[in-house]
Amino acid sequence: MTARAADRARYDRATAHLDAPVAIVDLDAFDANADDLVRRAGGKPIRVASKSVRCRALLERVLARDGFAGVMSFTLAESLWLARSGFEDVLLAYPSADRAGYAELTADPKLASAVTVMVDDVAQLDLVDAARAGDGGREVVRVCLELDTSLRLLGGRVRVGARRSPLHSPAEVADLARAVARRPGFEVVGIMAYEGHVAGVGDAVAGRPFRSRAVRLMQAAARRELAERRAAVVRAVRAVVPGLEFVNGGGTGSVQHTAAEDAVTEIAAGSGLYVPRLFDNYTSFSGRPAALFAQPVVRRPGVGVVTVLGGGYPASGAAGPDRLPVPYLPEGLRYDPQEGPGEVQTPLLGSPADDLLIGDKVWFRHAKAGELCERFDALHLVAGDAVTATVPTYRGEGHTFL
Q: Across-strand partners of 158?
């Protein structure tokens, strides 16, 4: 029996009492992935990206482990909810236009001390000030400045990387730091730089050796350029804000490279805990798939074909086959190219279909990590061949922040 077949047998035994659709997290794999992230971080703390987890119980589990400290959130509403729930260090990774949230933040000393907001434009400060709730909104807002990490070539005519912050040079970031420092009610405490073109792009895509080689060359050049520029940015900002608390960088795919930079004080990572399918294509690390979902077989249309209920859970990003969930267990199933994964039904082709009965489970991996939790109210936590706990996702707690 292969390792994957053994996992399938475990998951089927553990969830035999549960009807599909159902989502699980394999705690043995989850904890092993956490250990691997800590090893790769080389002693620097890892801030957990909540967007990639979306389950309070699992955020608490990983933060209880050595090597992890703080949460990187994705909306202001989520940040406030986590802070009210007892999370004491929440970095909002994206600018917000949530006026009601800012009014709440600036009026509550507990929230203001726990939550740090992201800024890359003075206009965002104006929005916060406009939202301050009269005499009640006097709390100092903790601010993190975001650096654009994109690699610019040929005099800027070619850009590689996500379109995030407009702040690219040390001077631009330092100028905004001065603007924040001069403004009552705000304090610069950190810098963030997410190199998504390094951390979030696989460099060993199966069957595409030339593309993989090109990605590796691009990433090597991007790492060199960013390391120099990030160090210069930190020096420039510390000249304005000597008490800077943290410099955050990286992501699951670049942990060890980012951690090697002296200027970086902490690493962001989250997807590496669940290891979705987009993280299969890296030369620098490998993880164990920890988050899966199962759909039930409901039809047997013919030889070599079964149909499962639903399963059309595409991930965000540029549309393409790599954004689709992948049939994982039993091994050897594939989509019908004429239908793909459907909202209500999904035909699956392959010889393993002939061994599946009505009611059996087919296990899938999502393309991304936390987005799976937008489809399920609960995650069943599996240890060995038993479900040891069932915990709510954000959705299960009544929250769909985006």
A: 153
